[in-house]
Amino acid sequence: xxxxxxxxxxxxxxxxxxxxxxxxxxxxxxxxxxxxxxxxxxxxxxxxxxxxxxxxxxxxxxxxxxxxxxxxxxxxxxxxxxxxxxxxxxxxxxxxxxxxxxxxxxxxxxxxxxxxxxxxxxxxxxxxxxxxxxxxxxxxxxxxxxxxxxxxxxxxxxxxxxxxxxxxxxxxxxxxxxxxxxxxxxxxxxxxxxxxxxxxxxxxxxxxxxxxxxxxxxxxxxxxxxxxxxxxxxxxxxxxxxxxxxxxxxxxxxxxx
Length: 257
Description:
This protein is of the alpha/beta class. The protein has 7 helices and 14 strands. Helix 1 runs parallel beside helix 7 (246-253). The longest helix has 13 residues, at 85-97. The radius of gyration is 19 Å and the shape is elongated.
């Protein structure tokens, strides 16, 4: 059997959105894929420290994380790519000039750094566990690496930032904007280079708009039956919904298990 390299999205693909747990048949598929000698990994936008627990829960050892900037092989974080430093600092400078609250992620942890407490004063706490490090002496210009930027700016006021689109950004809540590495496809390509494997042997599974970036004609892209229409249109194959054993059925259909 030709070895394949599988990359699975988490929410809505591996997991049931109602229970937030992995679909049992998906867990079985992962087990059988590995038993057959395939490479199996998660592909997620989550930071490494956030995705690690799920990775351990489902007994996987490989992952593309941090939006494609992080690579985990055999449980080791071998690559963790920060934001483009020049562009990140330019965005921070513009935010400061507009009195916009700033939080920075400078390492692989729940710690967020800032010169002041303006972010929380303007929009409240970040919507996930966070340790706030407020240091008035923090010199943004001297930082050697920046992994994420959080800005307390609404969608309506976002036009105030002329540099907003110079780095990948997402908005999960209305109150603030997040800049992070956003290149899952490039992360998969980098993983394949690291493994010295042929790109045509990649198989990706996804369900939502954020998975569009990792669906590519160079490899096999499988959309879940519960996927958005745009992803289904871009897919090589559309399987059943995740809770109707879509992953397991697709793997049987293609003879991978």
